Amino acid sequence: MATTTRVQPVNEVKDPVKAKDTGLNKPQTKLIIGGLAVTAILMVYLMMTQSSMQPVLLILGLLLGYTLFHARFGFTSAFRRLASVGNGQALRAHMLMLGVAVTLFAPILAFGLSFFGTGAAGYVAPVGISVLVGAFMFGIGMQLGGGCASGTLYAVGGGRTVMLITLLFFIVGATVGAAHLPFWTEELPSMEAFSIATSTGLGYGGAWAVSIALFGLIAWITLVVERKKKAPKMAPLPTTSGWKRIFRGSWPLFAAAIALAVLNALTLMTRGNPWGITSAFALWGSKAASFFGVDVASWSYWQGANAQALEASIFADSTTVLNFGVILGAFLASAAGGLFKFSNLTKGNVTAAIIGGLLMGYGARLAFGCNIGAYFGGIASFSLHGYVWGIMALAGTFIALYLRPLFGLSVPKPKDSFC
């Protein structure tokens, strides 16, 4: 009689609670108090120095980070699970998230709904060599770096030390990518930006129907792959029950998928654009380069509308505020679960973090966004480039499976336990 091996999920942030332990660690009260204090100070500062939009975005960022950590909602891990052992549970959660997102985005974009009178515009970008190469690079980079853009932020908040290195080189890569972007977008072939809603005549209603059908098809394909490969199921993470589960313990992937879609829609209505992450990395890196004498203001990337951001405080940048919120939200979530703990550094994971961060930063600029801005935000905005990004990032993931062992990183196998 065949035996069945129960497999733990691949997560971007390893959970220090053992799978056999059905309980939870005690809340790290001092860390929670410290995190709340930092959040309060930042909130007051934003209220006193910035527009009324920025404190709202900080709250949204906190909720995004809290949700990501509680559900261990990964993009890197979802692609790796599918590519390595054929498990598509997390990717189906992506499809649910995108389905809810397009349902909310359609009327917001159609009618320009917003809270602060900014209007609403989605992320619709051209598809060209830059997107193909950039997304492919990002797919490799996120598997080496240990997390995608959102995964890097919430892993930093959760105390995973090596992700600080990933983040640093993510910023470096994004800055170099910003400097090189004109070559990739102006010198190489590219088609015009294509929206399923506005470029086809379908309108947002028709584009919504097409999108839902595509998500359903992708979900069905993952089920076929799972049956064919006899993929292992994801083991549940330690959690609790009742209202306490809101604050402690893991959340179901489907609940996090819905929450992330709603929060992205609220972000769209608050600042006029969907959730994004990596544009802030290019800003931080460019400001640092300028401090050391580099004439970044002369770069094409920082001309026009972007010039003001380079001159202003980073706290005036809405993406920066969202990023800080995600880190703080993940920190509070990890402390509430008693999970905040610095991880070990090795020569292998540090080297992989450096290479992965550089590839992700550079690739994100070429591809007009990361797993959030291009994949999540682009598809939710009915942009063709979001789908292309997902395909190329998955292709990069397959390549990265052969590269990970070179750095001492594990590659999941059907008969192995992995986390």
Descriptors:
about 425 residues; Sulf_transp_TsuA/YedE; transport; cell inner membrane; globular; mainly alpha; cell membrane
**N-end to C-end Cα span:** 27 Å
Q: Could you tell me the strand content as a percent range?
A: under 5%
Large-scale geometry: globular
On the 0 to 100 scale, the average pLDDT is 91
Transmembrane segments: 31-48, 54-75, 96-117, 162-184, 204-225, 246-266, 321-340, 352-376, 382-403
Protein name: YeeE/YedE family protein
Family: Belongs to the TsuA/YedE (TC 9.B.102) family.
Membrane topology: Multi-pass membrane protein
Task: Walk me through this protein's architecture.
- This protein has one domain (29-235, 246-407).
- Helix content is 62%, strand content 0%.
- The protein has 15 helices and no strands.
- The chain has helices spanning 29-49, 53-71, 76-85, 89-111, 129-145, 149-157, 162-187, 203-229, 253-271, 278-291, 306-311, 318-336, 347-366, 371-380, 384-403.
- Mean pLDDT is 91; it is low at 1-22 and 415-419.
- It holds the Pfam family Sulf_transp.
- The chain crosses the membrane at residues 31-48, 54-75, 96-117, 162-184, 204-225, 246-266, 321-340, 352-376, 382-403.
- Keywords: Cell inner membrane, Cell membrane, Membrane, Transmembrane, Transmembrane helix, Transport.
Architecture blueprint of SSEs:
Elements: H1 29-49, H2 53-71, H3 76-85, H4 89-111, H5 129-145, H6 149-157, H7 162-187, H8 203-229, H9 253-271, H10 278-291, H11 306-311, H12 318-336, H13 347-366, H14 371-380, H15 384-403
